[in-house]
Amino acid sequence: MIANYHKLIEQEIKKHKFGKQPASLYEPIRYLMGLRGKRLRPLLTLLSYSLYKDNVKDIVPYAVAVEAFHNFTLMHDDIMDNAPLRRGNATVHEKWNVNTAILSGDVMLIKVYDMMLTLEAGKLKRVLQALNQCAAEVCEGQQWDMEFETMNNVSETQYLEMIGQKTAVLLGFSLELGAILADAPAEDQKALRDFGINIGIGFQLKDDLLDAYADPKKFGKQVGGDIIANKKTYLLIKALEKAKAKEKKKLQELLTFKKFSKQSKVKAVKAIYDSLSIPMLTEKKVNHYFDKGVKDFESLNCIPESKAVLRKFAEDLIGRQV
Question: The domain spanning residue 186 has which CATH number?
Answer without folding.
Answer: 1.10.600.10
